[in-house]
Amino acid sequence: MAGTGEGPLLAEALLQQGWRLQVSLVTAAAAAAYQALLSTWPVGALELQIGALEGPAGIAEQLRCFASQGRTVRAVVDATHPFAQQISRDVAQVCASQALPLLRLTREGLPSAGARLLPHLQALDAEPLAGVRLLLALGSRQLSRAVACSPGALHHARVLSNPEALQLALAAGLAPDRIACLRPSADFALERALLRRWRIDTVVCRQSGGRIEALWQEVSRSCGCQLLLVQRPSEGPGALPMEALLSKLKQLLA
User: Fold this and answer.
1) Burial level of 190, CB count in 10 A (0-12/13-18/19+)?
2) Torsion angle of C-alpha atoms 45, 49, 50, 53, degrees rounded to 10
3) Contact (Cβ atoms closer than 8 angstroms) between residue 207 and residue 184
4) Is there a shared CATH topology between the 7-106+234-253 domain and the 115-230 domain?
5) What is this structure's pTM?
6) Cα Rg for the chain, rounded, in angstroms?
7) Residues 166/143, Cβ–Cβ less than 8 Å
8) pLDDT digits (tens, 9 = 90+) for 188-241
9) How far apart are CA 78 and CA 103, in angstroms?
10) pLDDT at 211
């Protein structure tokens, strides 16, 4: 299970080790990040499964499908977003019940100099945000809670370009002209332009590590915006950085 951040890099490294992979992705749009690998490696080396896995039952059903096809699952890798806690709990439950090796990829943390850490999203309540032009870059499912926790702010949002994200932004009470539906741009040029066009004072995003957090930090600094980072939840003692995870998987393949 992976996304579009470290997922393609991890998949390429595992293919080079000799693994045969199925990568589970929530949306068809995320599959674009894997197209280069699909065209490079032989047919069957990498398969993409599109669609949300519906809880432990959905994950267990996927594993049963593999077994019915005579395919052996030797390990499960959880490379989902650090804030995707529910899917991580679900996959851990299923792997424990089936005695399957489970490895969790953790993103290395970034220095947060210049940014303020919030222990959780509700901590927005304590911030002096009345009249502040606030950009929410948290994921569409968190918008309603973020808006409720920051009454008086002038809310804007950058959400992904899909109907569900737009519906959730509108349901959270954001005005249509304060919603930008777009996928993260390669160099954040679009995000930089949004901050300037909307005259944003403060950006709220998640301390997710990796490229996206680094870009929000750089763009916020260059545009003179305050950056509030919602602290990453604990990933538990079994989470491994990329190199250590690849080493573990290489041992399993031997």
Assistant:
1) middle
2) -150
3) no
4) yes
5) 0.82
6) 20
7) no
8) 999 999 999 999 999 999 998 888 889 999 999 999 999 999 998 887 667 898
9) 6
10) 82
Structure tokens given for 240: 């491994």
Is the Cα dihedral 201, 207, 213, 218 positive or negative? positive
Mean pLDDT, the chain, whole residue set: 90
Per-residue buried b or exposed e for 146-171, using 16+ beta carbons within 10 Å of the residue's own CB: bbebbeebbbbbbbbeeeebbebbee
When comparing pLDDT for 235 and 118, which is higher?
A: 118
CA-to-CA separations, 158 to 4, 75, 139, 145, 190, in angstroms, rounded? 17, 36, 8, 15, 10
Judge whether 225 and 200 are in contact, CB under 8 Å. Answer: yes
Confidence grade of residue 166 (pLDDT, cut at 50, 70, 90):
very high
b/e sequence 32-43, b meaning 16+ C-beta within 10 Å: ebbeebeeebee
Q: Which residue has the higher pLDDT, 131 or 160?
A: 131
Would you kindly state where each structural domain of the chain is located, as residue ranges? Answer: 7-106+234-253, 115-230
Confidence of residue 117 (pLDDT cuts 50, 70, 90): very high
> Rounded distance, CA 39 to CA 125, Å?
48
CATH level 3 topology of 7-106+234-253:
Rossmann fold (3.40.50)
Q: Which fold has domain 115-230?
A: Rossmann fold (3.40.50)
d(CA 119, CA 171): 25
